[in-house]
Design brief:
The structure holds 2 protein chains of 2 kinds. Chain A is mainly alpha-helical. Chain A is built from 26 helices and 8 strands. In chain B, 33% of the residues lie in helices and 23% in strands. Chain B is built from 10 helices and 12 strands. The chains are: A mainly alpha, B alpha/beta. At the A-B interface, α18, α19, α20 and α21 of A face α1, α2, β6, α3 and α4 of B. Bound molecules: adenosine-5'-triphosphate and magnesium ion.
Chain lengths: 646, 292
Amino acid sequence: MSNFLQYTIFGIMLGAGYAIAATGLVVTYTTSGVFNFAQGALGMIAAFCYWELVSVDHVPVLVAVLVVVVLGGAVAGALVERVLMRRLHGASAERPVMVTLGLLVILTGVATIVWSPTTSRSVDNMVHGQFRLVGINIQYQEVLIIGVALAVAAGLRALFRSTRSGYALRAVVDDPDLLAMAGVSPNRMSQYGWMLGTMMAALAGVLLAPTQTSGISIAAMTLLVVNGYAAAIVGRLRSIPVTFAAAVAIGLAENYVINYVLPHLPQNLTPDITYALPMVFLFLALVTLPSVRLRAVGRLTTMRAPRVAGGFESIVAGLVFFVAAAIVAITFANTAFKGTTVLDLGGLIMSLGIVGLSLVLLTGYSGQVSLCQFAFMGIGAFVMGKVAGGGSVLGLLAATAVCAGIGALVSLPTVRLSDLYLALATFAFADAVATGFFADNHIYGAGGVSIGRIVLPGLSFGGDQAEFLMVTAFFVLAAWLVLAIRRSLFGRRLVAVNDSPAAYATVGLDIGFTKVAVFAIAAGMAGLAGALYGTVQGVVGQTDFAIFPGVIFVLFVTIWSIRTVSGAFLAAVTYVVLNQVWPNGVGLFAGLGIILIGRAASGLLGIEALQVRLPWVKGSPDTAGVRPAAPLGGPAMAGGSSRVAG
Amino acid sequence: MSPAEGSAAGADVLTVSDVAVRFGGVAALREASLTVRAGTVTGLIGPNGAGKTTLFNVVSGLQHPDRGTVRLFGTDITRMKPHRRARLGLARTFQRLELFGTLSAGENVQVGLESSVKWWQWRHVRSSFPTIRNRRADGAEARPTGPGSTAVVTSDRLLDGVGLAGLADRQSSALPTGSARMVELARALALAPKLLLLDEPGSGLDDAESQSLGELLTTLARGGMAVLLVEHDMELVMRICEYIYVLDFGDVIASGTPDEIRTNPLVQAAYLGAVAGPADGSAGGGGNRVEA
Ligand SMILES: Nc1ncnc2c1ncn2[C@@H]1O[C@H](COP(=O)(O)OP(=O)(O)OP(=O)(O)O)[C@@H](O)[C@H]1O
Ligand SMILES: [Mg+2]
C-alpha cells in the first residue's frame, strides 16, 4: 500500500511536469495556430542552462530559475515568434511544422556542441528534504512541482477565461481581422503566446531535470515532452484543464506500468516497453479525438506548381544520370573522402535519395508530413538482414512490403484527423522505434545487424562499383516511379487532396484511402532504401536511423525542394557530405536553412534567381505566394478552430 | 410546400426535412425543408447569413445536422460520407472557391472525370504513360492522357461548355474568380451528376456570361438533371428557376413559383431587413433586391 502511494505521488509529479510543457503547447497553438515541435528542445536548453548556473556557477536556485525561466523563456519566445514564425504568414500548411523542427535540431545541435554528451550532469532537487504523510515519504520537490503546475494551470485558465485578454489571445487564430479592427495587434498577441509557451517549456525542463537520475541528456530531455504531446492532444490542443488532467493521468500510468507491469515481463522486453509508452499514449490520445470536420475554407493555394517532367524526358534524364554515375564510379574507384570511399558515400547518397523521393511523393505532392522515414529505413534494413541470409532480392522485397504494411498501420489512426496529427504520430513512432527497437541490444543494438551484398544467379554486386551502380539504378527507378505517379491520375489525386480536401470528397474520392495509400507507398520506398543502405554499409547499428537525423534529412529535402526529384537528390548529397565533414553541425545547417527558406514553397530550387544560375534545374519559379487566409497556415493544417475552452 | 403538381418536373431527387444546425449560439438552420425534382432548376435564395451555404454543406455531407434528414432518391443519406454521396450522383460547387489550385483547369476537370476509376484498375498504370497507345472498342485510337486522350477530349468539351475554351492549360489558381467558378462547374459536371448544387455560380460573371450560365443550367435541367441554385442575382434566379425557396434566419419562410415569390410580402420584408442591416462585402455584385 505504501509503495502504491509512493508510486502515485511520483506519477502525479511526473504528470505535473508533463502538464506544464503540454499546456505550454496549448497556449502557443491557441495563439498562433502552430504546434511547437521544439517545445521539448526549449525545455532541454533551459535545463542545461539551469545546470550551468547552479552546478557550475553556484548561482542561488531562485535566481537561476528567474533567469532561465522568466527572463530566458520570455526573450527566447519573443525572438522565436518575431524571427521565425511571423514570416510564415501564408506559407503552405506544413511549413510552420518544418520551422519548429528546424528550431528543434538547431537547439539540439547547439547543445551537443556546448555541452559535450560525454560529461555527466546531474541536477539537484531545488528544494531538499521530505516529510511523512500516511506512512510514505513525500519529497518537498514533488510538492513543489505539483504545486507549481497547479498554479500555472490555474493562472492560464484565469487568463484565457477573462474577457479581455482571453478573447484577444483566442481571436488571433480564429478571427485576426476582427481583432485588428478592435485595435489589438494579432502579431503582438501571438508573440505573448510564444513567450508564455516558451516560459512553460523552460519551467518544465528545469523542474523535470532532477528526475533524470543518471544525469540530464540532450536527447532524453528533448523527448521527455512527447508524453506532453499526448496530453495536449487529449485536450484537443485547446482545453487547458483537460490537458492538465490527461498529463497527470499519463504520468501516473507511466509510473504504474514501470513499477507494476514491467517487473513481470521478460527482462529483455523492459526497455522497449518503457520507450514505447509515449507512443502508446499518443496513439490512444489520437483515438479519442473526434474526426475532423471537412470544411470548405476557400482557395488557399496559389503557389506555382513545379513542372513535371514528361515520360520521355524523364527516361532520358535518368539514363544520363546513370551514365554520369558510372563515370564517377570509374573515375573515383579508389578515392576516399574523410575516411570513407567515394563509392560508399555515393551508395549512401543514392539510398537516401530514395528516401527523399518518398518524401516528394508524400509531402511534396500530397502535403502530408512524415518524420519517421528513417525509422522505416531502419526496419527495412533489419528485415533485409534477417531474410534469406541477408543479401537477397527477396530481402529487398520483404523490406518494402513490411514497411508498406507498417506504414499503413501508422497512418491509419490519423487519416480521419487533420495532417498535423500525422506529423505527431510519425514523430512518436520514430521516437519509439529508434529508442525501443533500434537501441535494444537484443534486437538491433550492440553489434548491429549485418547485411550482405546482393547476389543474383550469375551476377554479384560484391564489388564496390557494381554495388554503387546497383543502388544508383534503384534511385533512377524510384525517380521514374515518383514522376510516373505524378503524371498519372493517382498523382493528380494526390495533389488534389492536398489542395482542397473538401472538393476532393465532394467529387466522390475517398480522402482516407488516398492518404493511407500514399503513406504506405512512401513507407515502402523508405524500407527499400533502408535495405539498400544496409547493403552499402554492411552493418547497420543503432545510431544510423535515430530520430533527429531523420528530422534533419526531412529539413534538407524541404530546403532544396520537397516538390522535385532533384530536390530529393541534392538533399541526400548535402546530408551525406555534411555528415562526413562536420557531423555535429549538420543540424545547425538544416535548421538555419529551413529558417532562411521561410515560406518559399519549392525551396531553393524554386527560387528564380537561383534558377538563372542553375539552368539545368527544372520547374517554374516559386514566385506566387499563398493568400494568407489564416495566420501561419496552422489551423488549415490542424483543422477546426483552436479555441481554448476555459 | 412542394412544387405544384402537374408541372413538367420529374421524381423527387432531393428531400431535406426539418434540418437544424447550430454553431455555438448561432442557429444557422432551424427547420429547413425543401424538395428538388429531376428536370428542374430550383432556386434557394435568402439574405446573407440565412443559412444557404450551411444547407448545401448538410446536403453534400460536409456538415452534420443536429436534427433532420436528407434523402437522395428516397435513400436516407444524412449520415453518409461526402464521397459516397457524390458517387450516388450528387455534385456541388463552392461559394468560396475550392479548386485544386496547383492543377491546371483541365486537370481539375479530369480529376472529376476519373473519380470513378478504382485503385485496382489498369487505367492508373496506363495514365502514367501518355505515349502508350491503346485501341478503343470502336477501333479508334485513344491515348489515356495527354493531347488527344479521351479524358482530355472530354474535359476540353466540358470546359468549352462553360465558356472556358482554350484555358485548359492555365493553372487554376491563377484564373479570375468568374472563370474559376466555371472550372468548378465543369468539374462538377464531369461527375455526370443527377443532382447539382450551385453556390452563387453567378458572382464574378459579367452579364453575357451569366446569360449563358442561365442557358446552360436550363439545358441541363431539360436533360433531366436536378439543379439547386443559390444565387444573389435575382434576375437570373427569377428567369430560370421553376420553383424557389426563400431562407431567412435558418427557416424556409416562403416557397413557390417566381411570380409567387416576387409578390410575397414576407420575402420582401426579409430582404428589406437585410438591406437595412450591416452591409456584407461577400454579397458580390448581384445585389439583394427582389424585383416586385
Ligand atoms: N463554420 C461555422 N462556424 C460558425 N458559424 C458559422 C459557420 N458557418 C456558418 N456560420 C454562421 O451560420 C449562419 C449561416 O451561414 P451561411 O454561410 O450558411 O449563410 P449563407 O446564406 O450562405 O450566407 P451568404 O449569402 O453570405 O453566403 C451565419 O450566421 C454564419 O455566420
Ligand atoms: Mg453562402
